[in-house]
Structures are given as C-alpha cells and as structure tokens.
C-alpha cells in the first residue's frame, strides 16, 4: 500500500511524467483501475483547484468521490493522545480515521500549517494522524510542510515549456498581506533538487529562510534582481518568516513581480494569487504566464498519484 505524502514519494520523475502525459492525452485510459473504489477528500482549509482537479482525476479513473469540508462541517478533532476531552473537541482522530477508512479506499487530506506551533507543524500531526489510524492510502492535498501534487503539476508544466536542456528556474518570494504557509515553496524546492537537470536558485528577503534541510545546497540570493538574471522560469510565492515562526516581517512592494523583472521568462504561481501585490496585472494577463496551465496540470498530477496508489492496493 502506497501513500502520496511528499515529493520523495515520486520514485522516478521520468516515469511519473510520462504517466501524467499519457493521462493528459487520453484521460480515461485507466478508467477501469478505480472502478468500485471510493476516494474520500477531507478539507480542513479552503480550496478551488485541489478540490476540483482531484475530483476530476477520480472521475477519469472511474472512482467515486466523497468530499467533506471537515474543518467547518465535521466535529472538531482531537489529535493529542491521552487528553481529557472536556473542552471544545468532540471526536478523536483515532475513531474518526478508522470510521472514515470503512467508507473509503483512498483518503485525500488538506490541512495547512497552524503557523503557531512550529514543532507540531513539522510533525505533520493531521496528515500523520490519518496515515497512522486510517489504514488506507493517504494523498497529501497540501499539508503543514508540503504540497506535492502542486510540485508535480509544476514539474509537468516546466517540462512542457522548457526550450533548453538546463533551464534556469528561480523561486522568488513576493509580498502578501497575510501570513502564508511554506508548504508550496518547500515542495517546489524539493522537486527541483530531486531533478538536478534544472539550474535552480531561491531569492527572498532576510528572515524568510526556508528549512535548511529542504534548501540543501541550492543557491539563495537576498538580491532579487541578481537571482532573476537570465531566468527561464520564475516561480513566485509568498511564505511567512521562519523566525519568529509564521510572522510577516516584510511587505516591501519592490519584491512584486513586474513585466520588467520577468523579462523573457515564464511566470509561474500555484494560485490563488493577489493581483498587484504578488504580481502586476500585466504579467498575469500577458503571454508569459503559465498559471492556467499549471492549474490544468493539477488534474494529471492527481491522476498519476492516484494510479500509483491504486496499483499498490
Ligand atoms: N494551495 C495553494 C496555496 C494555498 C495557500 N494560500 C493561501 O492561503 C492564500 C490566501 C490569501 O491570499 O489570502 C498557501 O499559501 O499555502
Ligand atoms: N494551488 C492550489 O492548491 O489551489 P487551491 O488552494 O485552490 O486548491
């Protein structure tokens, strides 16, 4: 039984990319694989793309999909062991996960970082709680520290548009009014490092350092213009600071991506994106934006991950 929790669960980029391409060309090719199987999708946070593209992927695979906004419609869940549950939380993950697993064959979970307790976020309490107690394969639909389905869709998109053998790919921080998770930046960095054919670097203001274990030996620039020089793909994302954890330290509008900064490079963002805060209208409305195609590829990324899971059952 396979889970899809992290980009490291992509055992071979080449084979996953060709599987996704096969699904894009012929979406119903694996329709029989999921027949009679139920995919449960649990959302502790909002979603547009993840919810609809995963549901569409399930449809292509012949699976039935059950969706619950568990964060707002379900009982508040307790994740700690041995707690006296006399406060607000009505149900323990131990029962909830076992019950759900009787209804579903595969379980997708979206549970963002709290951005309050770094240790708990890094322990992936929610995702690992379901993995531990559900006993069925778990699909990460953005957890506290990662968004591997997004990273796979991004890898597909870059591969489809690259014009040279070793394109330069820059991950750039951009300002945002709210404190956002590091999950997207983490998974994008990990998938770039797992595919060293890309000339990858990161740029962010001081104070926004990502986890050093994830960054590894990737070059990091505090000067955005220096990082963007000769870029082929510019992947833009806000994330909150690491110290103090979850803080907004910088709102400098000079980090916003403009057509001048982008030059000839392609613009990428996972969406949803704040116009004229993260990126100027002219970039999103111009020919170099890949954001719509990235969102399209979410369906085939989810389909590839679900095929690998279904084949392991
Ligand atoms: N999965 C796509 C990104 C989800 C989330 N963005 C957000 O919450 C943006 C919300 C806002 O713009 O208010 C994030 O950054 O991880
Ligand atoms: N990119 C992404 O995961 O979008 P949603 O948050 O809308 O699912």
UniProtKB/TrEMBL annotation:
It catalyses: N(2)-succinyl-L-ornithine + carbamoyl phosphate = N(2)-succinyl-L-citrulline + phosphate + H(+). Pathway: Amino-acid biosynthesis; L-arginine biosynthesis. Residues 196-307 form the Aspartate/ornithine carbamoyltransferase Asp/Orn-binding domain. Carbamoyl phosphate binds at residues 47-50, 75, 110, 147-150, 270-271, 298. Its EC number is 2.1.3.11. N(2)-succinyl-L-ornithine binds at residues 142, 176, 237, 274. It holds the Pfam family OTCace. Keywords: Amino-acid biosynthesis, Arginine biosynthesis, Transferase. The keyword S-adenosyl-L-methionine does not apply. Residues 2-160 form the Aspartate/ornithine carbamoyltransferase carbamoyl-P binding domain. Catalyzes the transfer of the carbamoyl group from carbamoyl phosphate to the delta-amino group of N(2)-succinyl-L-ornithine to produce N(2)-succinyl-L-citrulline. Is essential for arginine biosynthesis. Homotrimer. Belongs to the aspartate/ornithine carbamoyltransferase superfamily. SOTCase family. This is N-succinylornithine carbamoyltransferase. The gene is argF'.
